[in-house]
Amino acid sequence: MKVLFQIRPDYLNNPAGDTVQAVSTGRELKALGVDVTVSPDPNALLTDFDLIHIFNLTRIKESYMFFLNAQRQHKKIAVSPIYWNPESFLQREEAKPQDLAVWNLNQPMRSRVVRGCDLLLPNSAMERDNLAASFSGHAPCRVVPNGFPDTFPAIGPEPFRRRFPALPHEFVLCAARISPRKNQLGLAQACQSLGLTLVLAGPVNDRKYFNLVRSFHHVVYLGTLQGEILASAYAAARIHALPSWFETPGLSSLEAAACGAAVLSTDQGSPREYFRDLAVYVRPQENESLNRGIRAAMDHAPLPLTDHVRANYPWSRIARLTLEAYEDLLGGNIPPATHTK
Predict the structure, then answer these.
(1) For residues 133 and 316, what is the distance between their CA atoms, to the nearest angstrom?
(2) Residue 226 contacts residue 144 (beta carbons within 8 Å)
(3) Within a 13 Å sphere around the CA of 131, how many CA atoms are in the beta-carbon half?
(4) How does pLDDT run across 45-59, given as a tens digit for each residue?
């Protein structure tokens, strides 16, 4: 089977969750014998491919062009939407009014992809239902969750502690791009009030916001961590906190849980579908919720969540589910959509 992954051109230079999902899925599919090629070219010649897999409907313009090109060449199209309606985030007090206007202006493009592709691969049943609530009909869905690298659980805290010996033994980690949606500013305020060191790791998407977060004296920024040192950071952290405005469910929360950290997660989006009652949840817009959540997470036993995540969400398993979806699509075994308004 030959599959073409199509994703925004800056997916490596500007990494986000869609980057991790595409790269990790592609690597594990190759291990299963699938011929996977990645291309950001909206005019790619698709003759040699059995299937086109498009990632990310949030940043829709590139994905829409990929979709139109695949339709013109009569190819089967699978889409990982990585979608959650962001209206509550875009309507917050400090948001720019034009951001919501731009989102709504682009919804018809998202609708056409959602309705016109052959198979949607949402990361949760909750994401599937969010798509149904946002659009008046959609293509058939097969839920394929996100995952964590199979190698991460074997990596302990020692490499991280050797590299960063000045950090306190107990700290709160947030591994995510630095942006208002991830809510590191609220997290920094809560950690300061509790006398805890907050360690940030991830690319800076918003420099002004980053400077606000860094103005708190107890915040330590380590840049972007990857691979073994990132896994070791998760293993060293007492808590991994991701109090975002929404997540589907937050790749770093999955990774941190697999490495043994207690997880504090937003209650917005699909985290509960993954983490059940085994994580601590907070409301991102409420400061006191964050304070209570961090205190609770400090006393939270991480092992039940670690066991649950390791059993259900390694990327090797996710790749097998993805391949099954591909085979069913190409074999005509996908039932028609039933989720419409």
Answers:
(1) 31
(2) no
(3) 35
(4) 999 999 999 999 999
Strand-pair partners of 200: 174, 221
**What's residue 203's pLDDT?**
95
pLDDT score of 199 more than 80 = yes
CA distance 291 to 189: 9
Q: How confident is the model at residue 336 (pLDDT cuts 50, 70, 90)?
A: confident
All structural domains of the chain? 2-147+314-330 (3.40.50.2000), 152-312 (3.40.50.2000)
HEC profile of 205-228: CCHHHHHHHHCCCCEEECCCCCHH
d(CA 326, CA 331): 8
Beta strands at 198-201 and 239-242: parallel, antiparallel or unpaired: unpaired
Contacts of 316 (CB under 8 A, 6+ apart): 28, 31, 150
